[in-house]
Amino acid sequence: MVLRNFRNYRSAEVSFSPGINWIQGNNGQGKTNLLEAIYLLSTGRSFRASALSDLILWGESFFYLEGIFEKDGVEQSLKVYYDPQTRKIQYNQTVFPTLTSLLGILPSVLLSPDDLCLVSGTPSERRRFIDMHIAQMDALYIHHLGRYFKGMKQRNVLLKAKSDTSIASWEQMMAHSADYLVKKREWAIQALQGPATEWMQRLSNAKDQMHLDYESSLSSQFAESWQRHRAKEMIIGSTLQGPHRDDLSICLGEKKAKIFSSEGQKRSCICSLRFAQWELMKESIGSPPLLGIDDFGIQLDQERQGQLKQFLTSFHQVFLSSPLPLTDSIPHSCPPAIFHIINGVVS
Fold first, then answer.
1. pTM, full prediction
2. Which of 94, 114, 298, 315 is the most exposed place for a label (fewest CB within 10 A)?
């Protein structure tokens, strides 16, 4: 992997192991930045910054990332160049118009300390989790997500203007995509339920039972529902129901994890969700996605860490960042690759 002017990396080239990669360094040295670069090549976005310009090394005008990897027995490459005026995305010899086009090429799952928002945060953060999960397996989902929000944007303009002109046609467009989105989300949550429950049992020594449920504000008859609510929504000037307002319910037993669970239980829920996501993606795409865990050791207490360490090698290629040195408590069939990070320099 090649990094140029990315975060605090002026110039770096890293060859990762196909097994466990232990990325060690003190806080602020660039451990998470390295995981962020991998995630950007995988998904076309950062998991920490909303603006790509924030990823450019201070004082420089651009960043460049390149990843070389093997897929289907063939060496392949992904390249991303960005400056405030230009972005270039290239997969092998094909040039892509948008970063969204990267989704599905190099699938990955990332477990981050910020994932606590999946339990404690807002519905929009849980919807983002579902959308990114499905988008890496289904290109058509991205298409319908874009169409839905395009239609809703136009509908909201008409609602604010208190105009019925052409609003029905936008609602029909939204309804077609909403039906696809809701069905795929319901499928994804149902598919995640089994492996998430199993992981929660492993990490809690069978103490906790996890349950997932998709909460839909509208489950069918989308266009008819929007038509019925037009008068009310014209007063507010916004679409109040639809896939953009749905949520993922996460419960331990019969109680909402957000309200009734301890911090340790919430982090176990997050780990279980991410590992279930990894398993479902592997089954769907036919090959193991990458797994990244940022600040390994923070997510779980000592007992639950011990449970997780026993399963690390089953995830194939893994990237773990930590301020602590690697211990012998992680089982491995081949020695992990260890990378020391000091102020954006890898050794």
1. 0.93
2. 94
C-alpha to C-alpha distance for 111 and 300, rounded to whole angstroms: 12
**Dihedral sign for Cα atoms in the order 5, 11, 13, 16:** negative
Tell me, what's the pLDDT at 293? Answer: 94
pLDDT at 207: 87
The per-residue DSSP string of 28-65 comes to: TSSHHHHHHHHHHHHHSS-SS-SSGGGGBPTT-S-EEE
Got the DSSP string for 217-251? S--S-HHHHHHHTHHHHHHHTS--SSGGG-EEEEE
Residue 257 lies in a domain: yes
Q: Report pLDDT for 299.
A: 63
Q: Is residue 91 situated within a structural domain? A: no
d(CA 162, CA 92): 49
Residue 339, beta-bridge partner list? 23
What pLDDT score does 314 carry? 85
CATH code, domain with 193: 1.20.1050.90
Give pLDDT, residue 333: 59
Instruction: Kindly report, residue by residue over 272-317, the tens digit of the pLDDT.
Output: 999 999 999 999 999 999 999 999 877 666 776 777 777 787 898 9
Strand segments, DSSP code E, in the chain are 2-6, 9-13, 20-24, 63-71, 74-83, 86-91, 94-96, 108-111, 210-215, 247-252, 255-256, 290-293, 318-322, 337-342, 345-346
**Structural domain boundaries, residue 191:** 112-288
| Per-residue model confidence (pLDDT) at position 324 | 83
pLDDT of residue 37: 98
C-alpha 104/C-alpha 88 separation (Å) is 18
Four-CA torsion 51, 57, 63, 64, nearest 10 degrees? -130
Half-sphere exposure of 326 (CA within 13 A, CB side): 19
Q: Is residue 270 part of a domain?
A: yes
Please report whether residue 63 resides in a domain. Answer: no
Q: Are 222 and 178 in contact (CB under 8 A)?
A: yes
The segments of the chain whose pLDDT lies below 70 read 299-301, 304, 327-334
d(CA 182, CA 219): 7
